[in-house]
Design brief:
The chain has 21 helices and 19 strands. The chain is of the alpha/beta class and 567 residues long.
Length: 567
């Protein structure tokens, strides 16, 4: 007779796919499940202050490890987490959201009205809501089919690189079944198949098109990470010798130390010379792009489909006319590389006109710190073992222009753009990659949304460096549309975080108002005494000391948002 429960089987499956930590908030419908998950010594529970934090942490963990997981209770938990899950859906992150739901006997019973519901006999509200932000939803109310339900949901999350919802009835988690053996059938998943005929034709069409052009460039988009094609993109660049740019969401997905790397392609606010090089080319290859209002500076880019080879996850489109489906990006790129003729014409032109960044002059001794001084020192502070994470805000635009060391990482939520994402995501990413030092740039407005996650960081014992940019409000919103609603209360941020530490000693805090204080603080957080602590540094900047890129982007987005109706 089997002694392995449904909950322990779920735990084993999570470990098998690479989840070693999960983020949770307890509730009476999921506590038995949490007991079963916690019995697995290879799976660590990280209980969070609220479900939104847990969801953002699972997002960050998925970025670091490839897949994340959160476990919350029915409705009040799931619907609190749904904004974070929606963000993971938009950003193509496989996050497994497990919710404990009412006893299986209560489903369909019109005589029962339960707590955590909307006082209706139908318990499907959470399930229906998650249909919009997950690629698979399943409810386990019977033990006999649970094995297939779990494996199907996990497979869909990994296959589509999207979140899934697994609901587990409160009386199911501790039940056993013969299929839940100590050594179950190993989890396996068939990969996506490429149509060889389609790929051959796509290669010929793309190669003929690019080889006929004089000025050519290669632009890398964020789908390369989802498709596990980053190495293949590098191989393509080295073979064809085209100059390379990255889109905003793909910063950190192509080495910025590569000898053909130009910089960031961000429409009108690109790195110096990059917009001109890309948009004036005769032909360009875009690998895994996402063109939205953010990444195109309110669709102000001057790209033409007629000049583009667009390589998506499973499709290749040449000149906006020929489309080839069922072609896997990771398989296509190496084959295309063999057929492209080396062409460095655009690179040579870029080298002739490019003027590198000049030296930023220092502040006066007691002069208030300026943003350009701050980011100049952060550029010097970056090293291979750092992942730079930035929230939606002015910090995002400044961070985009920093040059990453070869092995450094970069994370941003540019598609969904949920203010406050970065605090929970810092927690999850740091848990997923404990040997990587996080440098998180978070605005004061964003921080106030999810500040509680700092207490979880301190309790778990990770060591991020969080730079709180105190510029007195929602500066990014102010540059899009000015108004009193962009003003926030000015907290004593270091005192707030110190209060969260309680008696724990693994916290360092500082306030920075001048360049001298910044230099001392950056040295201190790297010292042996503090490098393994949570370091929280409040940096004061003038509200109007924002990047020119934000001013340009904000003005264009405001104009785009204000277009009159067509009819």
């Amino acid at each position: 007779m089997s002694t392995t429960s449904l909950g322990s089987h779920i735990a084993a499956r999570l470990v098998e796919i690479g989840v070693m930590d999960y983020f949770c908030v307890p509730g009476d419908f999921n506590m038995t499940l949490l007991d079963q998950l916690n019995a697995n010594k290879d799976l660590r529970m990280i209980n969070c202050c609220n479900e939104l934090e847990a969801g953002y942490a699972a997002d960050g963990y998925a970025r670091a490890k490839g897949v994340g997981c959160l476990a919350v209770t029915f409705n009040v938990g799931g619907l609190s987490a749904i904004n974070a899950v929606a963000g993971a859906f938009a950003e193509n992150l496989p996050v497994i959201c497990i919710t404990g739901v009412p006893n299986s006997n209560d489903f369909g019973d019109p005589t029962k009205v339960l707590h955590h519901t909307t006082a209706e006999e139908n318990f499907n509200q959470e399930h229906r809501c998650f249909q919009e932000v997950t690629c698979c939803q399943t409810t386990i109310r019977a033990i006999s089919g649970a094995y297939e339900q779990i494996d199907h949901a996990i497979s869909e999350a990994l296959y589509q690189s999207k979140p899934v919802l697994i609901q587990v009835a409160s009386n199911m988690a501790s039940l056993t079944h013969p299929l839940f053996e100590e050594q179950p059938v190993p989890f396996s998943m068939t990969g996506k198949t490429t149509n060889e005929i389609s790929m051959k034709r796509a290669i010929k069409s793309a190669a003929d098109f690019m080889n006929a052009a004089a000025k050519v460039v290669l632009v890398v988009g964020s789908q390369v990470k989802t498709c596990k094609a980053q190495k293949q993109a590098i191989q393509l660049a080295e073979s064809c010798q085209y100059p390379v740019a990255v889109m905003p969401r793909s910063k950190g997905m192509f080495p910025e130390t590569h000898d053909r790397f130009m910089g960031l392609y961000f429409a009108q606010i690109s790195s110096e010379g990059v917009c001109e090089a890309v948009e004036s080319a005769d032909a360009y290859i875009f690998v895994g792009p996402t063109f939205n209002d953010y990444s195109t500076c309110a669709f102000s880019h001057l790209l033409s489909e007629s000049k583009m080879v667009r390589i998506d996850a499973r499709r290749v489109t040449v000149a906006g006319k020929q489309t080839f489906g069922c072609v896997n990006m990771a398989e296509f790129l190496p084959q295309l590389a063999k057929e492209l003729k080396p062409n460095d014409t655009t690179w040579q032109a870029f080298q002739r006109t490019y003027v590198g960044p000049g030296k930023v002059p220092s502040n006066g001794k007691d002069e208030p710190l300026k943003a350009k001084i701050l980011y100049s020192h952060l550029q010097d502070w970056l090293h291979d073992d750092v992942t730079l994470l930035t929230d939606t805000g002015d910090a995002q635009f400044n961070a985009m222009k920093l040059k990453l060391p070869e092995k450094a990482g970069f994370e941003v939520q540019l598609q969904y753009g949920s203010i406050g994402w970065s605090v929970g995501a810092t927690l999850g990413y740091a848990v997923g990659r404990p040997k990587t030092r996080m440098l998180s740039l978070i605005g004061d407005g964003s921080f106030q949304v999810t500040a509680q996650a700092m207490s979880t960081m301190i309790r778990v014992g990770i060591s991020p460096l969080v730079l709180l940019i105190n510029n007195s409000g929602y500066v990014i919103e102010e540059e899009i549309h000015s108004g009193p609603y962009n003003q926030i209360s000015d907290w004593n941020y270091t005192a707030v975080v110190e209060g969260m530490a309680g008696t724990r000693k693994n916290l360092f805090t500082a306030k920075v108002r001048t360049e001298a204080e910044l230099i001392r603080t950056l040295e201190t957080v790297q010292s042996e005494e503090h490098s393994n602590k949570v370091c929280f540094v409040e940096v004061f900047l003038h509200p109007e000391d924002c990047s020119g890129d934000l001013l340009e982007w904000g003005a264009r987005l405001a104009e785009y948002n204000a277009r009159p109706p067509r009819h």
